[in-house]
Each structure stands twice: as structure tokens, then as C-alpha cells.
Amino acid sequence: MISEDKLVKALIKGRYECYVKKSPSYNPYVKSELYDWDFKIEIDDLTFTDSYRGVNPYSGVEYVYEKGGNTPVWSCDYVGYVNQDAKVSSGEIYKFLKEARGNHLLNCQDNLFSDYTYENEIFKYETFFQGDVSSLLQIENFYYTYSKSDRHQDKIFGSSAYMNLLVAQQMTAGRLK
Asked: Which of 90, 101, 141, 143: disulfide with 82, CB 3.0–4.6 Å?
């Protein structure tokens, strides 16, 4: 059995390498038969994998194995979506999602499973955790934070005010075995 500290370090590195660093010019995922895409990285004596399918909605599974093992010591399932009726594009939302998660991973100081909030000029990200590493639930909410006082946005979206409009959400359940 691996320690929680070792697991968290592997999750931070794996998630950053596969998700945050992904760009139009760099895709660390490979096509998969079971899922649409697979990612795998060796981290010390652990193997981190992430596989997902779909774009909106999307779902996936993340595993951590001890090298040479075929039973994961960590398993995590996730599902998420971007609200099709949002007043901003899914591309803008996904760009912010990477920014917010990257900021969390880089600044959590190995305290990955702690509630976290991040904002920029037009979006707000909140993540909440329940339970512990042996039975963990995470909910991530993404809000569009336009307020009526922003007259530039009024010209784009009309005169309706949107303050903390939920535009995307992800639910994740994980377990250390």
C-alpha cells in the first residue's frame, strides 16, 4: 500500500502532465480502443493513467498502479459537461478550466484534496471535497461572473445580468485501495 503523500504527488504530476499541458501543438494522449484517448506516465515506482471519452459531456477514469502491478491502488471516475446554453463558448470555458486546475495543482502545496477557489476576470472555479482518500467525492463548479456593471459585456450579451451563472460542472469519485 502506498502512502497518501506519495499518491498525492503522483496525482499532481500526472494530472498536470496529461491535462494542463495538453494544447493544440502538444497532445500526450494516444487513441484508444476502449476509450477515445489514453495517457500513461511513470512517476517513480508508480504508473499514472488517464482515459476519457467524449467532449461534452465527457467521462473518464484515472488509475495509479504500483510498477509491475495490474491492480490499481487508486481509482477515480469522473464525468463533466459544459452548459450548452451558456452565454460564453465551450472553448472559453475549457480554457479557463485548464487555467483553474493548473493553478490548483501548482499551488496546493501537496494538499490536493482541499477546497479551493480561483477567479479571473470573467470566470470563477470552486472545488469541494467530501470524505478522505479511501472514499473521496469532488465537485467542481465553473461560473461565468459577468455583472451588469460591465457595459462592454452588455453590448455582447444584451442587458441581462449574469452573476455567478453555472456554466460547467464535473463530479469525481476516487478511492485509495
From this structure: 90
Distance CA 125, CA 80 (A): 14
Of residues 101 and 146, more confidently modeled: 101
Cell numbers placing 48: 499514472
The strands making up 46-54's β-sheet, listed across from edge to edge, are 30-31, 37-43, 46-54, 58-66, 74-82, 165-176, 135-144, 123-132, 116-119
The confidence score (pLDDT) of residue 150 equals 52
> CA–CA separation, 101 vs 104, rounded Å?
5
Q: How far is CA 120 from the centre of its chain?
A: 17
Residue 141 near residue 163 (C-beta atoms within 8 A): no
pLDDT at 69 over 80: yes
Q: How far apart are CA 53 and CA 36, in angstroms?
A: 5
Structural Rg of the chain based on CA atoms: 17
- Say which residue the cell 499551488 belongs to: 107
d(Cα 86, Cα 101) in Å, to the nearest integer?
Answer: 20
pLDDT category of residue 151 using cuts at 50, 70 and 90: very low
Supply 32's cell numbers: 484508444
